[in-house]
């Protein structure tokens, strides 16, 4: 597995974690 692909997947993973965290915090703030 090459470095570029690995970095690509790490960025996607971080993006999803950030997105889920924001969505959860928004839901908790509404409720």
Principal-axes shape call = rod-shaped
Proportion of residues in extended strands:
under 5%
Helix content: over 70%
Q: Major β-sheet, in short?
A: none
SS element count, helices = 1
**How many strands appear in the DSSP assignment?**
0
| Gyration radius over CA | 14 Å
Tally the structural domains: 1
Average pLDDT score: 92
> How does the helix and strand content classify structurally?
mainly alpha
Low-confidence stretches: none
- Give the N-to-C terminal Cα separation: 44 Å
Order of helices and strands, N to C?
H
In words, what does this structure look like?
The chain is mainly α. It has one domain (1-31). Helices cover 90% and strands 0% of the residues. The N and C termini lie far apart (44 Å). Keywords: Membrane, Transmembrane, Transmembrane helix. The chain crosses the membrane at residues 6-26.
Q: How is this fold's topology laid out?
A:
Elements: H1 3-30
Transmembrane segments: 6-26
Keywords: Membrane, Transmembrane, Transmembrane helix
Task: Please summarize what this structure is.
By secondary structure, the protein is an all-alpha fold. The chain has one helix at 3-30. It is rod-shaped and about 45 Å long.
Key traits:
31 residues, mainly alpha, 1 helix, transmembrane helix, membrane, transmembrane
